[in-house]
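Researcher: Here's a chain I'd like modeled. Treat it as a single chain, no partners, no ligands.
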Amino acid sequence: MDRLISLEPSNVVVIRVENGQKCYGELTLRNVMYTMPVAFRLQPVNKARYTIRPQSGIISPLTTLTVEITYEFNQNSSLPNSLPYCDDSFLLHSVVVPGAAVKNPSSTHDSVPSDWFTARKKQVFVDSGIRVMFVGSVVMASLVNDGSMDEIRDVLEKSDPSWRAVDSIDEEGQTLLHLAISQSRADLVQLLLEFEPDIEARNRLGSTPLEAAVASGEGLIVELLLAHRASTERSESSTWGPIHLAAGGGHMDVLRLLLLKGVDVNMLTKDGNTALHLAVEERKRDCLRLLLASGARSDIRNYGDGDTPLHIAAALGDDYMVKLLLQKGAYKEIRNHSKKTAYEVAAEQGHAKLFDALGLGDKLCIAARKGEMRTISRILESGAFVNGQDQHGWTILHRASFKGRVEVVRFLIEKGIEINARDEDGYTALHCAVESGHVDVIELLVKKGADIDARTNKGATPIQIAESLNYSGIKRVLIQGGASKDELTHVNKPTLSFTSRSVGKSDKEMVSMKKKGTRAKSLFDQSTAALVAI
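Model: Modeled as a single isolated chain. Structure tokens:
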């Protein structure tokens, strides 16, 4: 026999250390003798640092006694560098005491004479293998800050289950998850998640671990937290939710993870902004595109100024974002709380380059379609760009050419408009004039240097379009202007019709015709005069 007393659950005294609280642990001693009482004495090597209650006593056969070990710790104390263990140790003396009477454990406190453990005639056992392990919020925070993976696991496994060691909070109100995230330690986060921490616990700033990870752009950590069902919602105490932090911070990978997880793309911040507002405000163009592709609404007004994302883009003078929002259906006429449209906001800030896209361009298109020369001249003098294009790439020359407004076409050419500008389908004004059958416009464009062999994105030249629509007179005009007859051998009838192509390009009259069931072929079978009247 090498000992009279066993230690439960192990030879380790686990002492919980907390600032401003009593720091203590418990050690359970078991008498392994079947018939004999055993006396014990437990002494710390460093007597100034530890207090033991009871320090000695008698334990009946096969029974246990729990002693409390208090550690003297305050804010001026320093923890050992070897956390969670330290070099401190305890000496456990034990001796068999036949015939000793034990009434109850509480009556045995420090009641054993010290000479029992020194008399040579008795066999005294000495156990010096008792170690000290420190646990507690202070210790856990220190270990996480040091990135001590093995030690963290050891403490979490050995700590009393009634105390949630994994939910420890440091002096700054940070949870262990927050501390690991601040160090960009995905491996530490994964370790902590094994012990099921409160994944929604907030720090003193009100942020959850997910919000902290999103704000830092920690994609792998965000993925781990989402896999453990971290909430993507904005709580009442948070100003921004995860999607707002991702969009405002320009964290594309994180934003994509949140969207794949089903986050509400139109979730509001406390002040009524959506992620789309924030992406525009912070000029995060990639995030803006992703949000729009994911169904973000562009018509939501925030609480403060009542601005939509388009208002914000206009105020910033960002023509790229303005055009992108318009392409995705942003409505220009929404007014904010000051009763201003996005155009009026841009004008107020002096962003003249946005005038076409936000307002003047629409008026210019209408005037060009109707042939209103004075209106066109006045709008151009107001600052509209003669070469401005709508969201589909149309210039006012495309409009005027299609409508057969020859005087408008002449005026625009004199104003220096780009005669060979192409829309998103590769059509020039000459293609438009040919499709709509306006010979006088075609002659003028050819005379003024229009590219007679220009091809659409599908490879169609003006003369091929004329051939497909049986416009023999227009073919002659184009050939006289220099078009090659060889192009006529490559025509597949019918070529793409303008009417089917024009739906959605802001030409309300053409949309109305399509709704009534009018087909392109029947239009082109009619006379040029009928087309001009459309």
